[in-house]
Amino acid sequence: MPVEVSPRVVVRRARAEVAAYMFDPTHDLEWTGGITASHPAQPGPLRTGAQVERTARFLGRSFTYGYMVTAHEPDRMVQLAVERPFPMTIRYELADHPDGTLVTIHAAGEPGWFFRWATPLLARQVRASITADLARLRARLEH
User: Fold this and answer.
1) In 7-60, at which residue ranges do the beta strands (DSSP E only) sit?
2) Taking the mean position of all CA atoms in its chain, how far away is CA 43?
3) How open is the CA angle 16-18-21, to the nearest 5 degrees?
4) DSSP string covering 46-75, please?
5) Beta-carbon contacts of residue 128 (< 8 Å; ≥ 6 apart)
C-alpha cells in the first residue's frame, strides 16, 4: 500500500515571492519541521540536478538523508527524489490564486519492508508533518 498525500494552503503572497523563499534550501530550517540541519551541495535555488543533505527526526528516529531535484519549473514546481525514511517523490507545486498563491506539497512513496506494516500510520504522519510545514511557511511569508 503506497503513501500518497497532497496537503495544500493559500499563502497571501505572489507566486514568485513564495518560490524564491520555498525553493531556496537555505530557508529549510525555518519552515520544514523535524529538520535539524540542511546542507545544499551548491548555492542558489533548487534546480534540476541540485542535491541537498538534511538531518531530520521522524517517528522518534534521527537520520541523515539526501534529496535530488529531478524536475523543476521556475516559480511553479520542484520535484525531489528522497530515499529516507523510505523512497518518496515530493513535489512542491505553486499556482496563482485570487488570494495569493496556492501551495501544494505532494508526497508519494512505497514504504520498504521495515515500514510496510505501518503504512496507514506513516500516511497520517506524513500528512500531519507536511500540513504543519505549510502552516509554518504561510506564517513566515505572511508576517
Assistant:
1) 8-11, 35-40, 51-58
2) 18
3) 105
4) --TT-EEEEEEEETTEEEEEEEEEEEEETT
5) none
The pLDDT of residue 122 is above 80: no
Tell the residue number behind the cell numbers 519552515, with chain if given: 31
State residue 117's pLDDT score: 54
CA 76 – CA 103 distance, rounded (Å): 9
Tell me if 46 sits within 8 A of 26, measured CB to CB. Answer: no
Per-residue confidence band for 114, with pLDDT thresholds at 50, 70 and 90: low
Q: 60's torsion region: left (phi>0), alpha (psi -120 to 50) or beta?
A: left
Q: Other C-beta atoms within 10 Å of 43: how many? A: 9
Please give the model's pTM, rounded to 2 decimal places: 0.88
With contact defined as beta carbons under 8 Å apart, do 122 and 4 qualify? Answer: no
For residue 26, report the phi and psi dihedrals to the nearest 5 degrees: -70, -15
Q: What is the pLDDT of residues 53-82, one digit of tens each?
A: 999 876 677 888 899 999 999 999 999 998
Q: What angle separates helix 119-142 from helix 15-22, to the nearest 10 degrees?
A: 120
